[in-house]
Design goal:
Elements (H helix, E strand, L loop, with lengths): L1 H10 L1 H31 L2 H4 L6 E4 L15 H7 L4 E15 L5 E9 L11 E3 L10 E5 H5 L4 E5 L2 E5 L6 E4 L2 E9 L10 E5 H7 L9 E6 L5 H12 L2 E3 L1 H15 L2 H30 L1 H9 L4 H34 L11 H26 L10
Parallel strand pairs: 3-10, 5-9
Antiparallel strand pairs: 1-11, 1-12, 2-3, 2-8, 2-11, 4-9, 5-10, 6-7, 8-9
Length: about 375
């Protein structure tokens, strides 16, 4: 009987194709929109992902996310070093500076200043040069995306303008001071897609606009076996500062954007519309398919098939449509990710995204089947003679 159900399904090619297209569209849009949403949200804490060394991030308690900088006095660094269980603590500067390019244009960039002695906090994936080159005079490291586009210089070749990526040896002007590129690194793109410039902490504080307090964060490494919870409590009680693990700081930054921006609502509407369109297309096509095949269901009923068996056949048909449609839709979504992986498009597909898309497809298939359920459940064997 199940083989008959499959033959009935694929035998009506136009209806079968319409149902497949509906599920493909729904699963593709849901997968794509959720993946772009995840990619965009991951950029809100991308800097934290690129800085894996610290066990704790210490900051002013009013900080709401990673780019919400509340500067501290440098004396705070020595106070944190005095906490029992702290093995090392280093300063970190993070801010926005305006960079003057060779052609005279200006580009806002993220400036990261890492500890002069240990270079903790620097980029982990160097493409050209080494992290130690930051100790050279006026040395800076730029990110690959920024170097290839926003920090690139404009030149004329064969009568047309071309962008020449910034490379080692090129100079940038940062706050009327010289910066010499000594390396290019691969880092997570920022939420605003601005270039990222790394240098030493002492040099970053010279590049940055003059302020009385210039310490953005304190990166802390703990002694082996130290109790993170206890040390965080001591930092809060003794120093009045907040201390987070990397994962906690990521969650803090993510929740800020989820609560205070319209991004979740915008993507949620797109996903909901894709779901509703999928239900409409698949439901209408499946109901039309059921009406076209009532004669066959009536024949089976006249031959002694029970309601439960007929409903099983319909469930199998819905499952086949959902599986094929989801496979094609999620496959196209994965291909989209592969094609756009090196572009500026934020696209990230954790395992939760296909799971949510698959759950949506299951619901779409069930709703489509339920639309035709009453027709099958109330079908009388004698109806076969009316066709």
């Amino acid at each position: 009987m199940y083989r008959i159900a499959i033959k009935m399904l694929v035998g009506n090619g136009s209806k079968y194709l319409a149902m497949i297209i509906g599920v493909v569209f729904a699963s593709l849009v849901i997968t794509q929109q959720l993946s772009i949403f995840c990619g965009l949200m991951s950029r809100t804490f991308g800097f934290l992902s690129d800085t894996p060394e610290p066990d704790l991030w210490v900051m002013e308690p009013k900080v709401q996310f990673v780019d919400d900088i509340k500067p501290m006095a440098i004396s705070r660094l020595w106070q944190v070093k005095g906490i029992d269980g702290v093995e090392w603590a280093v300063p970190l500067y993070k801010g926005i500076v305006r960079v003057r390019l060779e052609g005279g244009t200006f580009q806002n960039s993220n400036l990261i200043g890492i500890d002069d002695a240990t270079l903790i906090g620097g980029p982990a994936r160097m493409l050209n040069g080494t992290l130690a080159d930051l100790r050279r005079a006026d040395g800076i490291i730029v990110d690959q995306a920024g170097a290839s586009k926003k920090l690139a210089r404009l030149a004329t070749e064969s009568g047309r303008s071309v962008l020449i990526p910034a490379s080692i040896g090129d100079q940038l002007e940062i706050n009327d001071q010289r910066g010499v590129i000594v390396g290019v690194a691969r880092v997570t793109r920022t939420f605003q897609s601005q270039p990222v410039i790394y240098t030493t902490f002492s040099r970053a504080t010279r590049y940055a606009p003059a302020e009385r307090k210039q310490l953005s964060f304190i990166l802390v490494g703990l002694q082996a076996g130290a109790d993170k919870t206890l040390i965080k409590k001591q930092i809060a009680e003794k120093l009045g500062l907040a201390a987070y693990t990397t994962d906690e700081f990521k969650d803090l930054s993510l929740l800020y954007f989820l609560r205070n921006t319209g991004i979740p609502i915008n993507f949620g509407i797109a996903v909901l519309l894709a779901f509703l369109v999928g239900v409409a297309i698949v439901g209408q096509s499946f109901y039309s398919f059921t009406l076209d095949n009532l004669r066959y269901f009536g024949t089976l009923r006249a031959m002694g098939a029970s309601n439960f068996l007929l409903l099983q056949m319909m469930a199998l048909q819905a499952a086949v449509v959902g599986s094929v449609g989801f496979g094609i839709g999620s496959g196209i979504g994965s291909l989209f990710y592969y094609v756009s992986r090196n572009s500026e498009l934020a696209f990230r597909m954790p395992w939760q995204v296909p799971f949510i898309a698959a759950s949506a497809v299951v619901i779409i298939s069930l709703l489509a089947a339920l639309l035709s359920l009453r027709k099958i459940a109330t079908l009388e064997p004698a109806m076969v003679f009316r066709f």
